[in-house]
Amino acid sequence: SHAKKQPDGHVKRPRNAFINFRCKLVSIHSCRDFSFDRGNWLIVGRVWNKFRKEDKAYFEEEARIEKEIHHQLHPDYRYAP
To answer: Of 6, 25, 41, 63, which sees the most CB atoms within 10 A?
Structure first.
């Protein structure tokens, strides 16, 4: 399925820790011969789930900062799916 087109001025949600991890992984491997098909995304999810709290801390801090900045830029933002 395709995501529906968002209206002009739509504010995206801040990214969570897993999405930050996934984005970092894509940027690292985009210059290599690595395809991000469904099977590989499942592996990425499993790797994330096996991370210890200390392993996730960097990405959780990134997400916390992004959320804080997002709140400063859009104080009236409310997630509405």
So the answer is: 63
